[in-house]
Amino acid sequence: MSVWNTFIWLIYPYICLTIFVLGHIGRYRYDKFGWTSRSSQMYESRILRWANPMFHFGILAVFMGHVMGLGIPQTWTDAVGISETTYHIMAVSVGAIAGFCTIAGLIGLLYRRRFTKAVLGATTKMDKVMYAMLGLVVVLGLINTVSGVATTYNYREGVSIWFRSIFYFNPQPELMVVAPLSFQLHGIFAILLFALWPFTRLVHVFTAPIGYIFRPYVLYRSRDDHEGSRARRRGWDKVDTIPRRR
Amino acid sequence: MRIMAQMAMVMNLDKCIGCHTCSVTCKQVWTNRSGAEHIWFNNVETRPGQGYPRTYEDQERWKGGWKLDRRGRLKLKAGGRLKNLATIFANPNLPGIKDYYEPWTYDYENLTTAPAQEHMPVARPKSLLTGEDTSITWSSNWDDNLAGSTDNTHNDPILKKIGDQVKFEYEQAFMFYLPRICEHCLNPSCVASCPTGAIYKREEDGIVLVDQDRCRGWRQCVTGCPYKKMYFNRKTGKVEKCTFCYPRIEVGQPTICSETCVGRLRYLGLMFYDADRVLAAASTPDEHDLYEAQRQVFLDPKDPEVLAAARAAEIPEDWIEAAQRSPIWALINTYKVALPLHPEYRTMPMVWYIPPLSPVVDVVTETGEDGESHTNLFNAIASLRIPIDYLAELFTAGDARPVDLILRKLAAMRSYMRDINLGWDTNEAIAQAVGMTGQEMKDMYRLLAIAKYDERYVIPSAHYEDAHKLENVATECSLNVDGGPGMGGMGGMDASFGADPAVGSPSTPSRPEGVRINLLDWDGTGTPKGLFPSSSEQAEKGGSA
Q1: For residue A63, what is the domain's CATH number?
Q2: Where does the pLDDT of residue B359 fall: very low under 50, low under 70, confident under 90, or very high at 90 and above?
Q3: Quick check: A241 and B316 CB within 8 A?
Q4: Average per-residue pLDDT in chain B?
Q5: CA B4 to the chain's CA centroid
């Protein structure tokens, strides 16, 4: 296997995943204040009203599809009696709907971001890089899904096994070398997106407020519990006495 | 009974002259930043008027606060938990920046850099959102003093409630100011709306705060708060709100809006309440009963049972004492002249208002009658239904009776005290007509009209000072004890040290309670007397252990 292939399907994923993990830990430790989706709904809500849910629900469906396609081995679905043809038809149809929703939503969001001046003014350079990368990955992904109708390539016998092999620390880069170009490109840019992830507003994904469903409505905190929610680091202890009564 | 303490505020609207000093000083202290232009923790509205942000009181549109569901249970008006999460991507009830106003600045540079020309160069307004030329069409106080009222005031949601036929008359005749801060509610719907749990109510003093490190900018609290006192910072992407100036309150100082209030109309103090009864009170079926229901949640700080509960809950003695002196308790429960703002939102707000009598007095005076006479004022209160109904929509969910009674009390006080000030005979019948005694009239007058600084603000400081109790080292000036040099005159050194029983620690049993070690008379050789436990004491301890 060439140096290039070794790099791109073996070294590069590990570098990017390391950045992804360490980047999030670092950002959470040092930039909790910057950890937000930075909503621009106050500036513009007419387009956002349909585009944003469309994009988000779309991409959540896409994510679930990836969990299915990449995470669950074909042997498992075979075992429960889902034939490859059934699976393929389902994946392509549901995937295509979700993908089109995501793209339509993304187009709406990008339109308002470009043409609503207040929203454009609130857009950072990193936002632009992130949007470009996200758009590229989503488009390439949709091409893969739609072209699934025509091609005979079964990604569950190639890309998926390669993907899982990374996490087993038993990588099989040779599986990606033989994958179609559009799958290769989708993979390359998706991995790059993961490397960018911790440095963009995409971090808000990891603080999705699921706990809201289970917590009491009104929260109380003691004044003493909260002299900054970030734990003080060594050497920065504040002048303090033995814990106070109140 | 689960007793909790709450820092609360009462504003005496009769005294508000609408000068906006509170808003300006608050802005200078807290929100004088880029991204926070539209954020007014404190704002003063002219009523009738749309308020800020525009028409925020129209909860059918903005869906703030709580409502009762069909089974009579309390529910967020914007919807339950799942709906909250489902609308997180696009909140259908979020005010846009235009509902506040588009922040702007002026192109001042042009004044100095413009080339020589026939006309004076001007500083054009520039939008802070787009950087482009803009025309200023609205701001936080655009309808101040009923400015543009023919265009705007008909949008006042309260006027809409009390009916079309009175609108015009009202707009012509009445006006008063309503300063607003965060209500620091007992049942805060912003806290309940926050998906992340970043907003919390402080256990010690009930102040509602946003944890800026945990806020993720989901902006559901902006909808949840019916008073629209949660503000989304457009730069940081986080929500900010009135902090009740907690750093000042913690050291016993009034909030900046209170401190700088020209009319001295704000009162600050503690209220004890039973946290276990809040939910039931907020679920009171009839909106008209909510004012009384909230009053029943408060606990009398002089009641022995309450005192026992407060001590069991480890509320410090000085806090209990402050609660007993609280002007808020006096205004809400003793004189019963303060009312909550929009109790029908069911959040149990804790910034209350004394409704203004002045619109009534003005009308009486304009007719040439004696505006200080209680009979004239009582008649006017009875006949001038419009201002009463308007005030009732603000403070009692539309029930005119409490407002009526309070205005009578204020009118009676005016009349009763006029007799005293003019050296006339006092007329006890005036006080009795509103169910009060002459002495109560005088006491209420003292609190409302004389309004001494230390009677208006009774703020116990937070317990940092316990630090002193924990160790015998001199964390304050060691000369500053009774009879010590710091108190004037050289007292006997040895006698003065350790004379104060307030300092002393049970955690150092080897020293007599309250004794400080005096190193001034230590000659540097050997061990200072009393610094270490003596060997006999140590042996004793060892033996007993």
Answers
A1: 1.20.950.20
A2: confident
A3: no
A4: 86
A5: 17
Strands B125-127 and B298-299: unpaired
Check whether B516 has a pLDDT greater than 70. Answer: no
User: Is residue B500 predicted with pLDDT exceeding 60?
Assistant: no
**Residue found under tokens 């009463």:** B388
Shortest alpha-carbon distance between residue B298 and chain A (Å): 18
Read off the pLDDT of residues B180-189 as tens digits, 9 standing for 90 and up.
Answer: 999 999 999 9
State which amino acid sits at residue B404.
D
Angle at B333 between CA B313 and CA A220, to 5 degrees: 35
Is residue B397 within 8 A of residue B291, CB to CB? The reply is yes
Q: How many domains does chain A have?
A: 1
pLDDT digits (tens, 9 = 90+) for B42-84: 999 998 889 999 999 999 999 999 999 999 999 999 999 999 9
Nearest by CB to A42, from B96, B202, B316: name it. Answer: B96
Nearest CA in chain B to A221: B202
- Say which of A204, A211, A223 has its CB closest to residue B197: A211
Give the residue-averaged pLDDT of B433-460: 95
In chain A, helix, strand, coil percent, each to 5? Answer: 65, 0, 35
Which residues constitute the domain of residue A127?
3-212
Helix, strand, or coil (residue B66): strand
| Residue in A118, A217, A226 nearest the CB of B211 | A226
Candidate from B201, B219, B471 with C-beta closest to A219: B201
**Cross-chain Cβ contact B216/A35 below 8 Å:** yes
Judge: A223–B238 Cβ closer than 8 Å, yes or no. no
Boundaries of every domain in chain B: 465-545
User: How many contacts (CB atoms, under 8 Å) link A and B?
Assistant: 146
Task: Report H helices in B481-525.
Answer: 493-496
In a domain, A46, yes or no: yes
CA dist B345 and A162 (Å) reads 57
Backbone angles phi, psi at B201, to 5 degrees: -105, 130
Amino acid identity at A50:
W
Q: Which of B98, B100, B213, B235 to mutate to test the interface with A (most CBs of A within 10 A)?
A: B213
Residues of A in contact with B232 (CB under 8 A): 39, 42
Positions of chain A with pLDDT under 70: 224-246
Distance from CA of B237 to the nearest CA of A (A): 4
Is residue A219 in a domain?
no
CA distances from B87 to A217, B75, B80, B92 (A): 18, 16, 11, 7
Residue with structure tokens 């929100």? B31
For residue B250, give the chain A residue with the closest CA: A223
Of all residues in chain A, the one with the smallest CA distance to B102 is A43
| Stated length of chain B | 545
pLDDT at B501: 43
Question: Could you report the per-residue pLDDT of B146-194, keeping only the tens digit for each?
Answer: 887 777 777 888 877 776 555 555 556 678 999 999 999 999 999 999 9
- What is the predicted pLDDT for the residue at B167? 56
pLDDT of residue A84: 87
E-only strand ranges, B27-99: 43-47, 66-68, 74-76
Q: What are phi and psi of B38, to 5 degrees?
A: -85, 0
Distance CA(B273)–CA(B308), nearest Å, equals: 14
Which site among B73, B207, B218 would you substitute to test the A interface, given the most A Cβ atoms closer than 10 Å to its Cβ? B218
Q: How many beta carbons lie within 10 A of that of residue B71, not counting itself?
A: 6
